[in-house]
User: Fold these one by one.
Assistant:
Number 1:
Amino acid sequence: MHLSDAYADGFGLSFEMFPPKTAAGDEALRVELARLAEYDPAFVSCTYGAGGSTRDRTLDWCRELKNDFGQNVTAHFTCVGAGTGDMAEWLAEARDAGVSNVMALRGDLPEGGPDEDPWQPAAGGLRYANELVAFLREQFPQFGIGVAGYPEKHPECPDPATDLANLKLKVDAGADAVFTQLFFTNDHFLRFRDACVTAGIDVPIIPGVMPVTDFGRIKRITAMCGSSFPKEFASALEAVKDDKAGQFEVGVDWAVKQCRELMDEGVPGMHFYVLNKAAATEQILDGMNLAPVAA
Ligand SMILES: Cc1cc2nc3c(=O)[nH]c(=O)nc-3n(C[C@H](O)[C@H](O)[C@H](O)COP(=O)(O)OP(=O)(O)OC[C@H]3O[C@@H](n4cnc5c(N)ncnc54)[C@H](O)[C@@H]3O)c2cc1C
């Protein structure tokens, strides 16, 4: 399904996975994906490891999602560190694998990143995601295109207004939908959505939801991506820090409340960062009264 159709006829659900590092991880993921497939997602997306570290694994998983799971597939792709010839080669393979959409990303900068003044892309490469969107529109017009949006601004950007102007460049270059970085306070998302509308960004803005099931892991993730963690949520998790089941329950409860509010706010869809596990997302969807389609 092309992204421009994913939200046209009602609520669009999507799940994001990453390629495991081992054969045992692949086997375990297949079991989790079969459970999530019962919710009939608009698409499943597969991440692209930083600096192209999962170049082949991402393609393998896109093929499997398409051929064995019958899913509509969105392939994440980052342009940092690659030349356009190399990019075109990978994108042609993705197209031939039956990928419908590309999540067009710059990717995180290599060591030295933004402090390299000015940061230089690879020879013959692209500097920002808006250039990748333009490249895709020109060379691979069949793909739907998703881009990243940051309710709490991208960590490198000095202020929200500049970050929003940069997001508008991606949409003006041809993106079909914006998928947000994870957030735990809906006010951040709602303010961001209002600012997008004011800026004339008129494509679906899809909230990215990450179920928290392990406080230690989420602390590492938020430290990297710059999303803030509400004190109330942190204290509730701290109180059950030695109890895995307790952390799971607190995390699911928070996400259910968050997602119900977002539904009431009329979001056109939700993108779940499932971290290759089904259980928490299943419980959240049940809490939102979204039953498996097979049920
Ligand atoms: C939904 C989602 C999925 C993701 N999937 C992956 C993945 O699979 N693999 C991965 O490695 N990473 C992934 N990321 C993380 C992403 O790669 C990083 O956040 C990265 O640092 C920025 O990528 P971007 O596409 O947002 O970059 P850009 O949109 O290029 O923005 C990067 C920075 O540059 C600024 N900027 C943008 N355009 C311009 C311009 N024209 N002129 C000046 N400044 C500009 C922005 O304000 C921002 O600060 C994902 C993030 C999200 C939200």
Note: The first helix runs from residue 3 to 6.
Number 2:
Amino acid sequence: MNTLQKIGQLLHQKIGLSVKTVGESSIKSAVRTRMAKNNITHRQDYVNFVETSTEELTSLIEECVVPETWFFRDCEPFEYLKTKVLTLSKKYPILKLLSMPCSTGEEPYSIAMTLLEAGLKPESFKITALDISEIALASARQAVYSEYSFRGIQNTSIIDKYFTNVNSEYILNDQVKQQVKFQRSNIVDVTNRHLSQHYHVVFCRNLLIYFDNKQKELTYQNIHKMMVPGGLLIMGHAESTSTPASLFANCAVEKTFSFTCRDKNISGQEQQAKNTKKYAVDEITEKYTTKPFSRYLKYNQTNNKETIPKPTIDPSSAIEDAQTLADQGKFDLAIKICEKYTSNDQVNDEAWYLLGLINDGQGRTDYAEKYFRKTLYLNPQHYEALVHLSLLLKTNGNESAAKQMMQRANRVKKSSSQTNSASQS
Ligand SMILES: C[S@@+](CC[C@H](N)C(=O)[O-])C[C@H]1O[C@@H](n2cnc3c(N)ncnc32)[C@H](O)[C@@H]1O
């Protein structure tokens, strides 16, 4: 094994980095920098040094990591999170979110601003942000940024609202800062403290691209342990294709790289508790696939004139059931339930909205657009439908219509938060 391979092996063991994916030249350059700083001229001497000095290993890691990040990177995951916030916060009164790795803080602070913009109260959510780099974390805690950190931002009003501009620096306000707690942590060696946190939302973007398959697999298992079943996982776009379907169900909403954490490997005791849960997926599936309901669904589909008894199922739970099935990736049955529901009750905006979501997730964007428009026809104030339709129009290249739709969504949100505060005062 040559000296570079030895260093590569060390980095792989300690932080999961694969030389193949990062590129030999970046590792060579990092090693050269560290050798010069330590006045070492032979690579073998450096290997001996870094193998025995924890301090030097930390400095080498700092030199190798890629801290590249910016506010609202990729933007769609944040828009998507905004649409999920109300449902999530109803389910979890204190929402626990994780940004890992967080680098210099732009990602977790973007999450905080998204939640505040969605109308969440500061006391109703907590964000934990982890990274291996102390240098990146120190900068994150300071929260003073240059214009370059805003290169992905479309809505500049958010900068005026949450930052104070002093000369060429942008200082983040305390309201956002105090929503995020930063800690040093190694993703390949996550401590039990984090493993047992049961996060409701996890952002893990732009790190696993530097890992080999084995390391990715271990990391996904750790992320799965850290989340509640049904929790929302957001990956980076290049990583989303390697996210294992056995642990996470793809939400299949374009450009959001989002997944639902599956309930798997649960213990006997938990299984028993789960079995008694009202909305367990198997129970719901059974409810809709046993007679007479399944025959009724079939009847609706084929227009068969045979007389089928009406289902005895309470229709008010149907939308909730369809939502649960869709969250677990059982799209076909979820669609059938919604279609059945909308054929009986034409004016239920939530059923049309869910049909839009599922079709969007399945890539049937023309149907999705039709269903979101139908939702808005029935309920012009449907915030989530406005946001989704805006994302869809943007994806289809219709930028100006997308912008108008988003402006409409913002007006709806503004007026609903004014109504809320008026009713509280
Ligand atoms: C490209 S940044 C991604 C930041 C942010 N998630 C984003 O997408 O904008 C990658 C970060 O991963 C961190 N990192 C690298 N290896 C790590 C490890 N083993 N554990 C935790 N963080 C790590 C680096 O320090 C760096 O800040």
Note: The two ends are 71 Å apart (CA to CA).
